[in-house]
Each structure stands twice: as C-alpha cells, then as structure tokens.
Design the sequence.
C-alpha cells in the first residue's frame, strides 16, 4: 500500500495516547468539554427535550456528508453502516416525543484534504436536536440559546482552565450580549467572490472560504438558504424559492469555522424519493425510512452541533483533534 | 378478447381497441422440426425462438466471455458517419499561417494532436472508454489496457462493474483484480502531466460508495493532487439505451447480488441474468446529481455518460450547464457488453445523428467538452466526429481487441497508427491542430437539409 501522505496540521499530533491524555492542555480541554455537555443537558432538559441514546449502526445512514466514505459493517450478512449522523433516526424519534436530543457519536472517513482544515475528525460527536412542528427559525433560536448558555456557564465556572489554556474569555463578550448575525448563502458567496475567492454559487462554502468569513466575525453568525445540490435529501426545499433549501449553518467567530448544520426537514414521501434521486441515492436501501414517511412523521426542524468543534472554539484550540481524548484525524491511523 | 373504449368528446365514434391476450394462447405440440414452410419469412429465427423461449432474446450464451457485443458493424450503409467523406481544399490559409510560423512548408508530422479531454491533458484526442460488463473484458485485459493508456498519456475510464465484481482492493488478498489494481496499473506507467483516470458509479453501486471510497483513498492522492481524477456519472450506455448494465452470473454470485440487482433466470440452468436498473432521471435530477458531485468532490473532474437517446442534446445541455467537465455520448453502434439482440439491432440513435442533434443546439465556439464512442478504431471516423464537434473519441471494443492481440504493445500500436492517420487527414485538410477540424471539412451525399449546416452535400 502506498504510504499515506497527510499535509502538516497546524498543531503537532501527539506521539502517543499517554502524551496526549496526560498533557495539562488536554486535561483542561476535557474538563471544559465535560462542563459543556452538562450545561447543554441542563438547558435542553429545562426546555422539555428528552435525551435518547443514539443508534450506532443501521442499514442506511446520513448520505449528506460531502465526499466522506461511510464505514460498512457486516451485520449478519447485511451491509450496515456506522452512523455518519443520526438524522433519519431523529425524525423517527419524533413519533414518540415532540423534542428530542442525542449526544451522538459519528464516523465519517473524510477526504484527505480535510486533514489540514484543523476542524475535521473521522470520529466525532454531535449534540443532535430535533423538534416536531418547528420552523427553521425555531431551530436557529434554539441553537443560538444553546451556544450562549453553554459558553456563559463554562466561562463563569472554569476560569482556571481558561487561564491554563491562555484563552481570553473576553472574546465571548459579543456572543453573550448580542444576537447572532444572519446572512444568506448567496450573500456569503458574493462577499467571497468580491475578495477574489472563487466560491461556486451552487456548492457548499469551501473550507478556505468559510474560514475567511469566520475570521472576519466577532460573534457567531448563521448562513441560511444553501442551494440544492450541496446538501442531503432531507433538508426541505423552499416553496417560494425553488432550488433553495430551508437550512442553515452556524459559523463561529475568530476563524474557527462551522459549528453546526440544521434545517427544516422534508417529510413528504414523493418529494423525498425525487430528492433521493437528485442526490444520487438508491431509494431501495431506505425501505424502513420511506415506509415511516408513508405512515407519517411530524414536520420538524433540528440541527447537529459538533461537540469537538464547539469545544475547540470555546477553548481556543489550534486543531479540533485537541478537543478529543482519542482523536482520529482523517487518513491517520491512530489508536 | 376485446375491450371497448369511448374517447373523450360528445359525438365521438365508438372505437374498438383490440388488446393482446394477457395469457399466452395454448400451443399445440408439433413434430420436432415442424411440417410448415413459410417462404419469405424468418422461419429459422422463429423456430429457434420457439425452442429457446426468452433466452433467444440474447446472443448465444456460449459466446459469453469471448465475444464483444455491440451493434453489427457489417452494415455501413446505415451509418451516417461512414457515408460522410473528408474533403481537402485547394486553398489553405491555415497552412500559410503554419508556413509563416515554421519558415518552411508544413508537413503532416507538424499537426498537433495534443488536446484537453474533460479537464485532462491528453497526447492524442482519444481515450479508453469503459468496457461493458462482460467476462471478455477480463482482469488481465483491463490491466493491460490501463498500463498502455497510461503510457500513451490518454485518459482511461473504469467501468461501474469493476468494483462490484472484483472488489475495491485495499484489504483483499487478490488486490490486482480490483478497482484499485486498475488504477495502480494506470499510475505505474502514466506519462507525467498527461491523461487521467475516470471512475464510473451507477445507481446500484452508489450503495458501495465507489466515489467516496476512491476520493478518500491515500492511494489515489497522487492523481487527485495532479488533477487527474474524474468521476463519470453513467446516465446510460450505447448498446442498450433505456436498460441498465447486464451480465451473466453463476448461481453462487447471484445469491450474493440478490439484494441489489434484478436476477432473471431466463436461460435456465446455472446462469442467471443480472440487470442493473437504468436509473430514473429528469432534468432536475441530472442537474442536481452533477452539482452534488461538484460539491462533494471539488478536486475531481465530473464526466457524464449519455446514451444515444432522442433527447441526447437536451441532456448534454443540462449536464454542461450544471458544470460537467465532459459529456460522453455512446452511439448505438457502441458497446462491449451483454445486450438483448433487439436492442443491438433496433434501438438508439446512430452516433452521427447524436452529433448532429447536439451540434444544432450548441454555439459554434462552445468550450464545453463533448466525447464520443462507438466503433472507433481508426483515424477517419475520429476525424469526422471531431469535425462534427466532438473533442475526442473513446476506444472500447477496439482497445480490448488490441490488448488481446498484444498485451504489452497492442493498444499503443493501435493508437499510434490512429494518430498518424489523424495527422495525414488533418494536414490534408490544410489544418495543423486536430481542434481546427470543422463541418466544412466534410461532404455528405445526402442533402444538407438533413445534415448539419456547414457540411457540403450533393454532387461534388
């Protein structure tokens, strides 16, 4: 096999799990992450969300991860997948409860170019939220409240850890006091193109472009209305603006980039079938999900907030792998 | 059995529509070779079908694995491209320009053949197109074709059947058989800076995520980093437009594939027909699939393979507008794979007609890349296609026969001869780059109204 050639990441990868786990930086980061999770559970629990344990494998998983390979599992002779995200199961869970969340582990064998973005892990976790009868605005408001609540709690409770990390918590002043900004994807594309960055209007913001916009921001902001062809089949298409999706990303300030993706969900059976073809999926393998849609699921909106990315932003880390006790950087065989 | 229907309209007459019986009529048994005689009727064919049943829809299964299928090439009269002639002029202003540049009379070896094919630099305006799903395109021939295509500096397409049939090859013991084995064979002899590898994926093997796997594979990084990887979306193919890929598989393989494909026991015995679906496309589905490919694989090129369908031009326009780096069109003459005889004989547009339809809807200096395949093997047919707007021509059956003839040099020899013929032809037409060919270089014996504007016609 050809030797894997991975571009240099900004922060040097640890030589061993012991070196990583015993480093004072890692300990402070993991303490902050522990408190972030507790704060997230506090807020969501208080708002009536039920925490469910997420599935780890299934006959299908989220195909909406750009260019990432799913991990196949031989499940008694059936090809199963490790979850790239639990989106399909979140919709299913709403037949039981109106508001749910998972702290969900996800595995994505990302393209190798993501090894140098400082914000990709092959194995990561999401705070994964879904709300029945909710709009995109409801989901965005929840994401904003969640991020603000978590940051407020950890900054107040763990000053020593921030000091150890050298993270200046005054950077969060605007996040804590002002509403998050909003812009459309088209506006973000125009902004990037005006600076000479060749961003396609039909695609996701590329990694470099997203980092540029993030670096200019002093508090997190939402990007809305991504074009069809950049996302999975479950993001609902706008009725007023065909070709545009009722979705959003939350981008961190200071160049830390995307934290979260969410949308209103499509739940109409025939529309989903057409959208599956538009995303080159084979509907045959989604039998359980399609049957569920036929039987009816509530309209919903939700999002997945990347826990390690969020931790990286809060703790002010160079690379997202520093926010994981057992990091898997794309393409690098690690313990 | 009859059914009566009343069409809409108050005073419409009652129309009787005869409907074919839903169940076959009972057949009386007859003596072995029959006693009837039917002059002027394809009696032998009917008797063969009467004996074999549904299996007779296909070429003999005895030929499977040895014969390259595709349309019968022995009937040139049906082929628009064969009827065209390349006609050199007396007055040659482009030769004068070349004379000025060289300060000597230009000769055929001055013709430049290097061109861009779907985002790749290619030494010659040809590439190796995907082989059909037949055993004839065996592992050894596939590897030989890959090595020689690499050496020639021309792109190579790897068919959608390779990974499902022969695995990917990263963890398996017999890695050489695999998709990765094909890519390695190409890379091992690739001419620096030239060519590229194009990987197909069909609806069924979307489950196996061929593209995601290739795109995230460290082994493929050298191709990605040098901009020499493309993915080809297979909308359809030449030999059987409207149908999906077909192979004959043994009972054991059939069991493994049962979840993903239609398995049809038309032949009886151990051999089972494995069919892919043709996939469902609308303009919007095609547009969005291409956009998603560009979104998900920003460092790979996007090719789209179209069948010789009646709306081939509209589909090509959608593909280019959505950002495809190349559209490849398989004429009905094309195909190496297993196909029903009725499709080989009666279904799909000839390549010449595809080119005509696409040419009518395309601006004269359109920079989008059009690739064609179907019975390509020598210079004249390639030159005619280039004159009709194609940027390059794919070698399918010819490439397989070439490497079957000589596994080390067959394809190189074939392409070198094709290249020399192209240089002869292009220089005779007073031009010194293959891309300069145009409809003015062609003459058609049929009136111009039935052919592309700009082609000469009628008595010479």
Sequence:
């Amino acid at each position: 096999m050809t030797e894997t050639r991975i571009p240099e990441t900004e922060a040097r990868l640890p030589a061993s799990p012991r070196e990583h786990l015993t480093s004072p930086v890692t300990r402070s980061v993991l303490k902050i992450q522990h408190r972030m999770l507790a704060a997230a559970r506090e807020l969501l629990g208080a708002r009536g969300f039920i925490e469910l344990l997420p599935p780890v494998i299934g006959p299908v998983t989220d195909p909406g991860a750009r260019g990432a390979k799913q991990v196949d599992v031989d499940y008694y002779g059936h090809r199963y997948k490790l979850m790239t995200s639990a989106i399909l199961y979140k919709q299913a869970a709403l037949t039981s409860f109106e508001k749910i969340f998972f702290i969900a582990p996800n595995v994505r064998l990302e393209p190798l170019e993501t090894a140098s973005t400082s914000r990709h892990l092959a194995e990561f976790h999401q705070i994964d939220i879904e709300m029945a009868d909710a709009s995109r605005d409801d989901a965005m408001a929840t994401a904003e409240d969640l991020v603000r609540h978590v940051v407020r709690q950890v900054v107040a409770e763990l000053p020593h850890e921030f000091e150890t990390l050298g993270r200046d918590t005054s950077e969060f002043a605007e996040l804590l006091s002002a509403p998050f900004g909003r812009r459309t994807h088209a506006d973000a594309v125009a902004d990037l193109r005006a600076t000479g960055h060749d961003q396609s209007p039909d695609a996701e913001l590329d990694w470099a472009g997203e980092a540029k916009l993030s670096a200019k921001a002093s508090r997190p902001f939402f990007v809305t209305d991504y074009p069809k062809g950049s996302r999975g089949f479950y993001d609902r298409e706008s009725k007023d603006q065909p070709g545009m999706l009722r979705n959003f990303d939350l981008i961190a300030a200071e160049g830390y980039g995307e934290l979260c993706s969410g949308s209103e969900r499509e739940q109409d059976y025939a529309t989903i079938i057409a959208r599956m073809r538009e995303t080159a999926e084979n509907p045959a393998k989604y039998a359980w999900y399609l049957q569920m849609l036929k039987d009816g699921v509530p309209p919903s909106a939700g999002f997945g907030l990347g826990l390690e990315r969020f931790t990286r932003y809060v703790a002010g880390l160079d690379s997202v792998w520093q926010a994981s006790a057992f990091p898997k950087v794309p393409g690098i065989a690690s313990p | 059995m009859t059914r009566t229907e009343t069409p809409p309209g108050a005073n419409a007459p009652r129309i009787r529509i005869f409907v074919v019986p839903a169940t076959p009529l009972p057949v009386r048994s007859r003596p072995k070779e029959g006693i009837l005689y039917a002059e002027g009727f394809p009696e032998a064919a009917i008797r063969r079908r009467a004996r074999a049943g549904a299996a007779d829809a296909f070429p003999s299964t005895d030929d499977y694995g040895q014969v390259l299928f595709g349309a019968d090439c022995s009937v040139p009269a049906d082929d628009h491209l064969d009827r065209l002639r390349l006609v050199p002029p007396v007055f040659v202003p482009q030769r004068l320009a070349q004379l000025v540049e060289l300060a000597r009379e230009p000769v055929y070896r001055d013709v430049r053949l290097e061109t861009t094919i779907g985002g790749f630099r290619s030494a010659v305006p040809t590439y190796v197109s995907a082989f059909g799903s037949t055993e004839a395109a065996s592992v050894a021939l596939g590897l030989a074709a890959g090595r020689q295509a690499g050496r020639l500096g021309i792109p190579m397409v790897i068919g959608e059947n390779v990974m499902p049939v022969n695995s990917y090859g990263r963890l398996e013991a017999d890695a050489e058989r695999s998709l990765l084995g094909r890519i390695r064979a190409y890379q091992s002899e690739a001419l620096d800076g030239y060519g590229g590898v194009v990987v197909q994926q069909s609806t069924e093997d979307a489950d196996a995520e061929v593209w995601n796997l290739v795109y995230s594979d460290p082994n493929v990084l050298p191709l990605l980093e040098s901009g020499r990887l493309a993915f080809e979306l297979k909308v359809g193919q030449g030999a059987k437009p409207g149908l999906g890929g077909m192979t004959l598989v043994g009972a054991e393989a059939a069991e493994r594939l049962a979840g993903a494909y239609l398995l049809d026991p038309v032949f009886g015995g151990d051999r089972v027909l494995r069919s892919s679906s043709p996939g469902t496309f609308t303009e919007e589905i095609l547009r969005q699939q291409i956009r998603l490919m560009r979104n998900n694989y920003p460092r790979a090129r996007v090719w789209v393979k179209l069948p010789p369908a009646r709306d081939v031009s509209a589909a090509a326009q959608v593909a280019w507008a959505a950002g495809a780096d190349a559209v490849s069109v398989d004429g009905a003459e094309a195909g190496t794979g297993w196909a029903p005889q009725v499709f080989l004989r009666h279904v799909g547009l000839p390549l010449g007609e595809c080119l005509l339809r696409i040419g009518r809807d395309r601006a004269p200096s359109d920079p989008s890349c059009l690739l064609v395949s179907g019975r390509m093997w020598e210079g004249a047919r390639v030159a005619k296609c280039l004159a009709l707007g194609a940027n390059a021509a794919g070698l399918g059956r010819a490439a397989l026969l070439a490497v079957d003839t000589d596994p080390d040099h067959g394809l190189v020899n074939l392409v070198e001869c094709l290249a020399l013929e192209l240089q002869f032809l292009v220089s005779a037409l007073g031009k010194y780059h293959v891309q300069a060919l145009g409809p003015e270089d062609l003459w058609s014996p049929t009136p111009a109204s039935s052919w592309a504007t700009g082609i000469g016609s009628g008595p010479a």
User: Anything to note?
Assistant: Confidence is low (pLDDT under 50) at residues 1-10 of chain A. The two ends of chain A are 20 Å apart (CA to CA). Chain A touches chain B at residues 1-5, 66-70, 78-79, 109-113, 200, 202-204, 206, 227-230, 274, 277-282, 284-285, 330-331 (CB under 8 Å).
